[in-house]
Write a structure and sequence with these properties.
The complex is a heterodimer. By secondary structure, chain A is mostly beta strands. Chain A contains no helices and eleven strands. In chain B, the strands form two sheets. In chain B, strands 2, 4, 5, 6, 9, 10 and 11 form a seven-stranded mixed sheet that branches. In chain B, strands 1-3-8-7 form a four-stranded antiparallel sheet, with no helix packed on it. Classes of the chains: A mainly beta, B mainly beta.
């Protein structure tokens, strides 16, 4: 089955700087890669996703890049703000498979 | 406006006393999932339904059962909760199909076992 590794497990950045979180996946059949943000005590919420026919996707301060050959994808947050502090999970799903496999999570702390 | 609704939000039970958590959805999605999440760990899939087809994860204990009586509702039954079952239980839905995308999560049910 799919295995998703996520790094780093914790990340602290100064407000206004950029944050990058990286994930690798094992199943070459995976074609859908979402990123979820989870604030303390709340449900995971989708912030951005990318499919395997695209190499990069951007939404305001958030971008995701995908390297299918190397089987890794990354989340980039620019101009970080205190409200970006949360746990971020990457995930991967194979074509035709309903199961979404999550990475282990990154606790991002934005230092004011 | 809530699309995936879980009840109760907080459940306290005694060791060994059965518990049922419920999930309902207004999205008419084919797939419903139950995840277990412990203290900022990744959500761990317990099982999911594609319509009426039940898909159990290999490492889900027999203590956990599920029912989906119709498209809108899905239940998680914990037959004999142990201390290790204390967690947040998240229900989620997705459209299903070959090109399925986003999971829509409910607010979760936090289970405490005394």
């Amino acid at each position: 089955g799919e295995n998703v590794e996520q790094h780093p497990s914790t990340l602290s950045v100064q407000e206004g700087d950029s944050a990058v979180i990286k994930c690798t996946y094992s199943d070459s059949a995976s074609n859908y890669f979402p990123w979820y943000k989870q604030e303390l005590g709340k449900r995971p919420q989708l912030i951005i996703d990318i499919r395997s026919n695209v190499g990069e996707k951007k939404d305001q301060r958030i971008a995701v890049t995908l390297n299918k050959t190397a089987k890794h994808f990354s989340l980039h947050i620019t101009e970080t703000q205190p409200e970006d502090s949360a746990v971020y999970f990457c995930a991967a799903r194979a074509f035709g498979n309903e199961k979404l496999t999550f990475g282990t999570g990154t606790r991002l702390t934005i230092i004011p | 406006d809530a699309m995936v609704i879980q009840n109760p939000r907080y459940q306290v039970t005694q060791f060994g006393k059965p518990v049922t958590l419920s999930c309902s959805q207004t999205l008419n999605h084919n797939v419903m999932y139950w995840y277990q999440q412990k203290s900022s760990q990744a959500p761990k899939l317990l099982f999911h339904y594609y319509d009426k087809d039940f898909n159990n994860e290999a490492d889900t204990p027999d203590n956990f059962q599920s029912r989906r009586p119709n498209t809108s509702f899905c239940f998680l039954d914990i037959r004999s909760p142990g201390l290790g079952d204390a967690a947040m239980y998240l229900c989620a839905t997705s459209e299903g199909g070959a090109n399925t995308g986003e999971l829509f999560f409910g607010e979760g049910s936090r289970l405490t076992v005394l």
